[in-house]
Amino acid sequence: MPLIGVEAGAASAVAWIASAIIAAYLGDTLGFRIAPWAILALSLAVAVAIFLRLPRRATPEPPGRARGEPMNAAPATPRPSRLAHNRWTPLWFLAPAVLTLFAIGIYPTLFALKTSLQRYNLTRARDGFPFVGLDNYQAVLTDSTFWETLGRTAGFYLTVMPVELALGMMIALMLHRPGWGLMRSMVRVSLVVPLATTYAVVGLIGRLIFNCDFGVANQFASWLGFASLDWLGSPVGAFAAIAIMDVWQWTPFCALIFLAGLAMVPMEVEEAARLETSSHLALLRHVQLPYLLPGLTAVLILRSADILKLFDMVFTMTRGGPGAATELVSIYIQRVGFRIFDMGTASAQAILLLVLTIMLSRLFIRVFYREIER
Q: Rounded CA gap, 370 and 372, in Å?
């Protein structure tokens, strides 16, 4: 018997009400013209309709006998449920997720694309927002500051990604080895802690660690005989500080992805390879690496998108300073959009970053991704 009834109706109702709450919360931000109470009322009506249409769970009757039919009656032909013939029912369950995705993902992207084609300066709202075509994109592509921040972001990416991949691979290989028991389980659980920490909290932790007066980093440096350093006050120190915090947060993610890839290696194949060679490097290259490539591709794609839009941690730690030493491209877009209030140019920069992310994703899939032949 399919598990469709009161529980399914309640789940769908909750999903619709949650979508209504999200739409009402984002109404002013996204420019909806529908009042929040109207969205909520419509969602409640749809949820109640779904709830009433679904069949209730009933006590199962003996096979071959309809409800209320005498015991000596001939077996009745089972009648298919009305829900089975309703092809729209799956769409009712998918609609809340689709509407939420449209409200918080697709609509803002389309709005940014539209804004990037306008002279959308909030300080000159009285002049209107005329259509200017590709002028904003031309201004961005000829902006030397934009290219400097993009180059600084590329330098940050090339600094942290090799370290995260190498450390993640080392941790995954250590946890993949047999033995350790309880210690391995504790390490796996501890790897989730940095991932569960939000960017802003990571930035606050970084400010405390690299504080020039009472920071832990200078305390360790003094124990090793080095002089105290004003980490967040010097360009090199601030850049190194945000890189260290990013490595701390995202190395466990790489380790968990690689560990999942190593778990896919057939045990008999790995044991046979260990009998053939004693070189761990040869085992990694010829046996384990093909199973790691899909995870490596996913890590490169996700981390590329994360670094291109990295804002919270850097802004909390350094505000992009000192000077422009840690002003990544996302910090620069925020400054153009919410300090200069030139939303048209900021939207054009964001769209160009989206295009760059898509191009990098396609490149990583083409170069690194390989199907595993079994």
A: 6
